[in-house]
Every structure is written in structure tokens, then in C-alpha cells.
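Hi P.,

Sorry for the delay on this. The queue was packed all week, but I finally got your sequence through. Input first:
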Amino acid sequence: MRHLSYKTNYNVVILYQNSFHDLENCLTGARLARYQAASREVTREKLLQGSHFVYRALKELGFAEEICKQAFSVASTYLIPLPQGHISYSNSSNYHVLIYSPNGLCGVDLEEYRNRSEVMYDKFLGHQAVTDKKLAFYKKWLEKEIRFKCPSTSQVTYKLFDDYLLGYFFEANSEVIHLYL
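Then the structure:
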């Protein structure tokens, strides 16, 4: 059986909801340094959970063990060198998402879709006449984050689920498949 990374005509979105079980801390190198430097427990948990998720996602995509293990050692996911394609990663509260593009750059962001103050909306959006300030705020926020990860971003795709807003962009115009770990 060939893994997903061999299906070069698909872009992949992999989503995972935390299961809140104890994970082995097998972090090393720069990732361990980030973990140890974190002042908040929630930050340490996200680093550990994110590392395990990225490892599993890369395995699901079919990458070799030595590449997958880098999820536990590199400071940030975008530093993992892939023999083919590009990845982008984000997390928010209970969810983690990794996207993979075999033929172009990509960017992703995920945010908990919670209410903010009108002052916050106006400060970020300016005084634009919009019917749904909350949605406009989050779409603009996600696009800004995605554009930082992938400067060639032009058209972001948005998905609202379980009080979260997911946004992603793939440079390569290929079919997108969604997986849940």
C-alpha cells in the first residue's frame, strides 16, 4: 500500500482533537529547549501534544521514521525538511491541524471562534461597514497568519466547525482531501 505522500495530485488537511491522555515526553534538541523555557503549563502541553500530532500526521503521509521523529526535535514544524512537498501547522485550544501540499507552498491557521469586544473588532477591522464583525475579524486574522506562513496566499478557504474557524491556502490548485486522526 502506498501512503498519501505518493498521491501527488492531492493537497491534504489533517485535523486532530486532543484526547487529553498522558503523552510520553520524548522531546529533544531545540524542541525540548522551547518546552523547558515555557513559563505556562498550557504552553508545555501544546508543544508536547503538537509534537505527537505532527509525528502521527507525517507517518500518515508516509514519510520515513527519521523525518517523522524530527517533530520531537526541531524548534518549529516548518523547519522539518521533507524530501517532497511542504507542510504548515497550527493549533488552537483543543485542535491541531497540519496541511500538506506535494506541489507548492501552503499555509494554515486555526482559531477558536469566540466572541471578542466590539472595540477589538473595530481596532482590527477599522470602521468598515460589515454585517458580521466577528466573522470578518476572524477571516482577516486567519488570512494574516496564513500569509505570514505562505506569502503567495491569494484565496483562503474557510471552514467553521465546533466553535473553531479553520483557514488554509494551497499554492497548487489540486483536489483537497480531509483526514481526521
